[in-house]
Specification:
Blueprint (H helix, E strand, L loop, with lengths): L3 E12 L2 E12 L3 E5 L6 H8 L7 E8 L2 E2 L5 H4 E4 L11 H14 L9 H14 L15 H13 L5 E5 L7 H17 L1 E5 L3 H5 L3 E4 L5
Parallel strand pairs: 3-8, 3-9, 6-7, 7-8
Antiparallel strand pairs: 1-2, 1-4, 4-5
C-alpha cells in the first residue's frame, strides 16, 4: 500500500479585517484520522477548503507526499475528495448522470485508471448508488431529490475515485439515522486505506477519529 502524508506548516488564513486562524501546523498519513472542531464560524470549513486546494492560505503551506514524493497541485484532484454542504450537484441531471460526470473527471482522466471502460464505470456507479440507497432513483433528476437524498449522493461523489484523502465537512447535514449509518460506513472504510479528516461539532464524529484539532487554539 502506498503511503500518503499531509504536512501543514504554519498555516494562517485571514480576510480583510478578519483573522481566521494562524500558525496551524500538523502532519498526518495513511490510516490516520483527524477531527477538526470549533464553534460555528471559527474556520473549520476554511481549513478544509485549504486542504482541498480550493483556496490558498494567507501564509504557510500544505504539502502532500506519496511515498515521500511531493505531489504537484495538478495531481491533487485525483487524490483528494470532499463532501460538504457547499458542494453543488447538477439538479437537471439524474443521480446516475451526476456520478458519471464526476467519474469521467476524477477517474477516467487519472493515472489510477487510464484503461477504464464503460462496463467498469457503470459497475462502479451502480455499486455506489446501491450503497447510498439511491439505485432505484438513479434515473430521476436530482432536482426531485430530498435534501437527505442529495447528501447521500454527495457521499457517493466523495468516494467514486477511491481517494487517498477524504475530507468531510459537516457530513451528517440533512441525514437521517440510516443516512448517518451509511456515512459512518464510508468513513470507517476510508480509515482502513487512506486519510480521513472530518470537520464537525458532533461528539460521535469526533470519536471515530484518532486525533483532533481545535481550531480555536490557533486564533
Amino acid at each position: 500500500m502506498d503511503n500518503v502524508e499531509i504536512i501543514c506548516n504554519n498555516l494562517s488564513k485571514s480576510f480583510p479585517g478578519n483573522s481566521i486562524f494562524k500558525n496551524l501546523s500538523f502532519k498526518t498519513e495513511t490510516k490516520k484520522s483527524i477531527s477538526i472542531v470549533g464553534s460555528n464560524g471559527s474556520g473549520k470549513s476554511t481549513l478544509v477548503k485549504i486542504l482541498a486546494n480550493l483556496i490558498q492560505p494567507s501564509k504557510g503551506s500544505v504539502e502532500i507526499f506519496r511515498n515521500k514524493t511531493l505531489l504537484p497541485k495538478e495531481k491533487l484532484l485525483y487524490k483528494i475528495s470532499l463532501i460538504s454542504p457547499y458542494f453543488n450537484l447538477y439538479d437537471e441531471l439524474s443521480g446516475f448522470e451526476n456520478l458519471d460526470f464526476v467519474y469521467e473527471l476524477k477517474v477516467s482522466n487519472s493515472d489510477k485508471n487510464n484503461n477504464s471502460d464503460t462496463s467498469e464505470k457503470e459497475e462502479k456507479i451502480g455499486a455506489l448508488l446501491k450503497e447510498v440507497n439511491l439505485y432505484e432513483k438513479r434515473n430521476e433528476p436530482v432536482k426531485n431529490y430530498s435534501s437527505g437524498m442529495k447528501q447521500r449522493l454527495k457521499l457517493a461523489f466523495s468516494v467514486i475515485n477511491d481517494p487517498d484523502i477524504l475530507l468531510m465537512d459537516e457530513p451528517r447535514s440533512n441525514l437521517d439515522k440510516a443516512g448517518i449509518h451509511i456515512m459512518y460506513g464510508i468513513a470507517e472504510r476510508q480509515k482502513e486505506k487512506g486519510i480521513l479528516i472530518i470537520a464537525t461539532n458532533e461528539d460521535e464524529d469526533k470519536l471515530i477519529c484518532e486525533d483532533s484539532i481545535n481550531i480555536e487554539d490557533y486564533k
